[in-house]
């Protein structure tokens, strides 16, 4: 099989860029911890409110000074207590759904999580600026999908 | 009409497929037009129709029905040209497959229109459509398999009669695409047969949502290559003939198709990067495999432009870029496809961004993704199909592609490009600003959401302008199709349209490239590597199943 000289250069350039791209993505993910949201805990989708931690939705301070915000998504809204979180603190969002698939996306941040029935999703985020952030469901969930939104207030602690 | 009844079966079969394709195209694009107006509050639907019904119809009719039927029309006409006329059995099975596919399609459309299947084309559990919707999908897939295997039967017969020879490039590529399609469908068939149908009819109570999603996306990504490879066939085999050239390299063309079989399937997790239930390691592994398709894509880009340059220089093009002016720009069959290729440059680059693991969080489920697939399947693939249509229908009906129709075709291509440029640019930018996809309404009460109406290009109104131009372009295309089918003057010997199929020199092509057992074997090894452990984890750690929900 014959490869033209220019094609060799072109493919070498492409493959080297590919390796560079993937290395950047991989180092950022596994060395610096920038992985997309995920989780490996499952939950009975029919008993969400009886199961910890979803029996107590809202913000909880942990002993190490970080926070966890426990959220249940349902058609067509979220249950997450009073929607106030401190600025500059690491917050772990813990999310599931008690009916269909939804998402929990905070506009202007990297928080963009799928809420899958039966699965628990996690994402760590630290807000750098106080203010009010828009939360939307960006995964189709039914006739009220476009009304499924909320606002989270980031306050000085 | 009378004349088309006398057409040989080799022609009637692809015409039947083309007819369904363009019927779906007309309704599908109309749904698209309605969507952009509803999103801008410029249109209120009557009570019996809702936005998500239209959205489901738009996605299914254009991304699945239009593409699949057109692809089979192209395959049928092309293989009978490349390998010789179909025998009676091949024709019979192709017809049976066509009717099964059509029956499945109609069942799905009836369920969507009657409001019992507003589950979008990704039909996410635990949203539960009417059981017949899933039966329709299963029939659709089975019908395409029957047509696909009928074509493979024709190919096997040719191979037996021509022992030791490589098949013509068009036939090779058809077989590669059908293999890809059959392997890809295994995922969706598994979830529909074993999860959705028993659950929707009430035979089982719960569904494992994460498993159904994973099986869907096992199918959902190679599906895009099922759309793309026929467009690549046009680029590799049809376009060189249109410009009077040859295939740049037969072996590289075949190699790139083989690589697409290997690397387009074990990659579905890159649609599920932000969801729980799959460990980061497996998401990242599939990200790496996803990126491997960049190699055959770069090979394709090189081959195509090398063909253009070689031919341009033969025609006397001088200097670094002089050859460009020598290409047949006045031939809309060529120009349309060239523009389609250019759209694929940002389209492909956007795809790399989407699949880039953590970067996906920025764009996942935003309008960016909608912009992305409108400049991949919506233009490079669709406009290549338009470019094929201009000669394909005259070829099948024996009519002329007149000068007037050629001018209209230029207008059609031009308006589609402008409309898509406006709409998809707006969608990409709005997506970066956080605007969600799949929403009937865009007026969230927050300043970030108000900004989605303020940009010069990043504006929902621009999206609607683009969408309107696109619909006009679609109507123009339908007009051209109708003219070419029934009204254009019948061609004589001189003006007769032929199927452009470029010469491809197989003398340097290793026979290994056409040893399907090897490539299918490697494909399954890669699939097993990428999927066995994460899928068995999802099954072993399955939560109690989800019930049936109809939230629309």
TrEMBL record, chain A:
Signal peptide: none annotated. Pfam families: COX2. It catalyses: 4 Fe(II)-[cytochrome c] + O2 + 8 H(+)(in) = 4 Fe(III)-[cytochrome c] + 2 H2O + 4 H(+)(out). GO terms for molecular function: copper ion binding; cytochrome-c oxidase activity. PROSITE patterns: COX2, COX2_CUA. Keywords: Copper, Membrane, Metal-binding, Transmembrane, Transmembrane helix. It comes from the Bacteria. It is found in: Cell envelope. InterPro entries: Ba3_CcO_II_C, CcO_II-like_C, Copper_CuA, Cupredoxin, NosZ/Cyto_c_oxidase_sub2. Residues 62-157 form the Cytochrome oxidase subunit II copper A binding domain. GO terms for cellular component: cell envelope; membrane. Its main location: other. The chain crosses the membrane at residues 9-30. Subunits I and II form the functional core of the enzyme complex. Electrons originating in cytochrome c are transferred via heme a and Cu(A) to the binuclear center formed by heme a3 and Cu(B). This is Cytochrome aa3 subunit 2. It comes from Halobacillus salinus.
């Amino acid at each position: 099989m014959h490869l033209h000289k220019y094609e060799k250069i072109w493919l070498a350039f492409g493959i080297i860029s590919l390796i560079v791209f993937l290395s950047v993505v991989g180092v950022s993910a596994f060395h610096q911890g920038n992985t997309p949201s995920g989780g490996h805990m499952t939950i009975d989708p029919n008993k969400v409110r009886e199961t910890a931690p979803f029996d107590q939705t809202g913000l909880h301070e942990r002993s190490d000074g970080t926070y966890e915000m426990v959220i249940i998504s349902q058609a067509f809204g979220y249950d997450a207590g009073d929607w106030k979180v401190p600025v500059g603190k690491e917050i772990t969002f813990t999310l599931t759904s008690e009916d269909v698939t939804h998402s929990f996306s905070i506009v202007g941040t990297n928080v963009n999580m799928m809420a899958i029935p039966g699965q628990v999703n996690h994402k760590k985020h630290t807000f750098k600026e106080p203010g009010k952030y828009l939360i939307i469901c960006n995964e189709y969930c039914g006739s009220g999908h476009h009304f499924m939104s909320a606002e989270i207030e980031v306050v000085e602690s | 009409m009378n004349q088309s009844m006398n057409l040989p079966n080799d022609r009637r079969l692809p015409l039947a497929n083309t007819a369904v394709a363009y019927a779906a195209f007309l309704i599908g694009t109309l749904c698209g037009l309605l969507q952009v107006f509803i999103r801008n509050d410029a249109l209120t639907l009557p009570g019996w129709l809702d936005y998500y019904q239209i959205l489901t119809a738009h996605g299914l009719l254009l991304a699945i029905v239009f593409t699949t039927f057109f692809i089979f029309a192209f395959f049928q006409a092309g293989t009978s040209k490349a390998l010789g006329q179909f025998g009676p059995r091949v024709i019979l099975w192709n017809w049976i497959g066509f009717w099964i596919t059509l029956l499945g399609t109609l069942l799905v459309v009836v369920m969507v229109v009657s409001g019992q299947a507003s589950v979008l084309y990704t039909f996410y559990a635990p949203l539960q459509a009417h059981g017949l919707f899933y039966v329709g999908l299963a029939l659709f897939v089975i019908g395409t398999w029957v047509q696909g295997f009928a074509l493979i039967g024709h190919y096997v017969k040719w191979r037996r009669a021509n022992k030791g020879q490589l098949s013509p490039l068009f036939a090779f590529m058809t077989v590669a695409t059908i293999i890809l399609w059959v392997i890809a469908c295994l995922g969706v068939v598994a979830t529909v047969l074993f999860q959705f149908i028993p659950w929707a009819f009430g035979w089982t109570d719960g569904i494992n949502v994460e498993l159904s999603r994973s099986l869907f996306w096992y199918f959902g990504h190679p599906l895009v290559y099922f759309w793309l490879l026929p467009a690549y066939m046009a680029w590799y085999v049809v376009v060189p003939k249109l410009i009077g050239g040859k295939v740049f390299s037969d072996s590289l063309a075949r190699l790139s198709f083989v690589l697409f079989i290997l690397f387009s399937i074990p990659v579905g997790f890159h649609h599920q990067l932000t969801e729980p239930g799959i460990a980061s390691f497996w998401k990242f592994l599939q990200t790496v495999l996803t990126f491997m398709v960049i190699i055959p894509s770069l090979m394709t880009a090189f081959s195509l432009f090398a063909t253009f340059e070689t031919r341009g220089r033969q025609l006397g093009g001088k200097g670094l870029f002089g050859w460009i002016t020598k290409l047949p720009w006045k031939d809309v069959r060529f120009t349309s496809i060239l523009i389609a290729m250019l759209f694929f440059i940002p389209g492909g680059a956007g795809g790399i961004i989407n699949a880039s693991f953590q970067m996906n969080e920025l764009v996942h489920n935003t309008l960016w993704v909608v912009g992305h697939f409108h400049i991949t399947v919506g233009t490079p693939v669709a406009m290549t199909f338009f470019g094929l249509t201009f000669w394909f229908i005259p070829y099948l009906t024996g009519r002329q592609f007149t000068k007037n129709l050629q001018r209209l075709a230029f207008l059609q291509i031009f308006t589609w490009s402008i409309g898509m440029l406006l709409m998809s640019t707006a969608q990409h930018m709005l997506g970066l600003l956080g605007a969600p996809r799949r929403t009937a309404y865009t007026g969230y009460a927050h300043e970030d959401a108000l900004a989605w109406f303020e940009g010069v290009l990043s504006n929902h109104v621009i999206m609607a302008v683009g969408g309107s131009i696109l619909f006009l372009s679609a109507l123009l295309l339908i007009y051209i199709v109708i003219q070419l089918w029934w009204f254009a003057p019948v061609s004589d010997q001189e003006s007769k349209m032929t199927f452009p199929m470029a010469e491809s020199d197989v003398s340097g092509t290793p026979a290994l490239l056409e040893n399907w057992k090897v490539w299918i074997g490697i494909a399954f090894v890669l699939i097993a590597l990428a999927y066995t452990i994460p899928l068995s984890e999802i099954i072993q750690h399955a939560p109690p199943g989800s019930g049936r929900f109809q939230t629309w």
